[in-house]
Amino acid sequence: MAKLIGVQFQKNGKLYYFDANGFEVKPGDYVIVDTARGHDLGEVTMGPREADEETWRSPLKKTIRIATEQDIQHGVENRQKEKEAFSVCQKKIAEHKLEMKLVSVEYAFDNSKILFFFTANGRVDFRALVKDLASIFKMRIELRQIGVRDEAKMLGGLGPCGRPICCGTFLDQFQPVSIKMAKEQNLSLNPTKISGVCGRLMCCLKYEQEHYEMTRKKMPKIGREVITPDGAGPVTDLNIVKETVFVRLTNGDTSEIKEYPLEAVTRPQEPQQWQESVKKHPVREEKDELPDETVIIEETEYAIREDAAEEAPAADAPVPCPDRERNRAKFRKGVLGQPVRRENPNRTDIPAAGAAPEPEKGKAGPGAAPAAETAPADTGLKGAWADALEKAIQAISQDK
C-alpha cells in the first residue's frame, strides 16, 4: 500500500497523483516532484490517501522533497520572467507576420526550457520564430497550439451568468457537452445563449443533465394519454424542474390545458390505478361501432352476393342490364374453366354470348358466303380472321 497525494502545477489546473514517498504533507503545502519535464514545483490539493499500487496502470512517480522558501522564491521569479518573455514573443510574431495568437508563457522550474502556448485557425510555420526566440533566451523553446477552451481557462473571464467562468475557478478538466443536452433541458437553441466565452457550448449544461435524464424516465411522454383527477387527456408539455405535467382536457367542443403534479397523473397501462381512476372519474369509452346505415349496406351487399351465386344465368343467355342486375354482375362468381364475360350495359348492338350475328335484310354479313351457295353451319362463329387463317393453311398445304 502506498500513500497518494494530489498536486496541481497551475491554478485550477489538472490534478496529478504522486507517491508521497514517506513525506507528511497537507493540502496547501508546496512540494518538488519528478515529472516528464523534470523536477517541477506544485501545490498539494489532496492530502495523503492509501491506495494499492497494482490498481494503477503505470507506476507512480515519487515526491522529491517538500519545497523550501528558496524553491518558492524561485517559482515567483519565474512568473516575472514569463511576463517579459510574453512581450518579446508578441513582437517577434508581429515581425514575422504570423497568424497566431499568443496565450501564455511558462518557464520550467529548472530553467531548462520555455513553453509558449498559442491559438491559430490552422497550421502555422513558426520555424523562423523559434530560431529568433532561442537566440534571445539561450535555452530550449517549445511552441504548443491549444484550443479555445484551454485559452479561456488560462485567461479567465466572466460567464453569461455574471460569475467567473467555471473552467477558470474549479474545473480541473473539461467534460464533453453536446447539443442534445440543451434540447433535453428545453433551452433555446440560439448559439449566443448556450455558448460560453470560448464560443463552445457552456460546461454548466453537464451539471443538471443527469437529473433531467432520471426525471424524464419517471414522467410520461408528450402525446401520451394519461388519467388526471379531472379526466383523461393527452400530455402536451412537461416541466422537468417542477416535475409537473400539462394535460389537454376536452369538454364537449371546448378544451383546456391544465397543469398537474406528477403524483396526480396515472398511466392507462397500470390496471389497478386505471380501474380505480375510472370508478372515481368515469372516462368516456370510445367504441369502434359503425353507423346503422353502414351495417344495412353490408347486409344488402352480402345478400346480392348470395343471389348472384344461386341465380347465375346460363352462358348462352343474354345478361340484362338494369342497375340492380349490374350490381349483381359485379359479385358474380366465375366458374372454373370458363371466362367471365363483362357486358357493357350501355351498348345494345352486342348480341348475347354464343348467339350468331343476324345480318340485316338484303345485306350479307362480313365473311358470309354468297346467297347462292350453302354456308356451313358454323359460319356465324367465324369472322374475317377465321377465313384468313383457313386460306393461310391451304397455301401452306399446297406448297408442301
Number of strands: 12
Largest sheet: 5 strands, antiparallel
The 3D shape can be described as extended
Quickly give the structural class.
alpha+beta
Secondary-structure element sequence? EEEEEHEEHEHHHHEEEEHHHH
Counting H and I runs of at least 4 residues, what is the number of helices?
Answer: 10
Approximately how much beta-strand content do the residues carry? 15-25%
Rg from alpha-carbon coordinates = 47 Å
Average pLDDT score: 76
The largest beta-sheet arranges its strands as: 2-1-4-3-5
Unreliable parts? 281-316, 352-356, 360-381
Helix content: 25-40%
Distance between the termini: 113 Å
List the helices and strands and how they pair.
Elements: E1 2-8, E2 16-19, E3 30-35, E4 38-51, E5 63-66, H1 69-96, E6 101-107, E7 113-119, H2 127-137, E8 140-145, H3 148-155, H4 179-184, H5 191-194, H6 209-218, E9 225-228, E10 231-239, E11 244-251, E12 254-261, H7 271-280, H8 292-310, H9 323-330, H10 384-399
Parallel strand pairs: 7-8
Antiparallel strand pairs: 1-2, 1-4, 3-4, 3-5, 6-7, 9-10, 10-11, 11-12
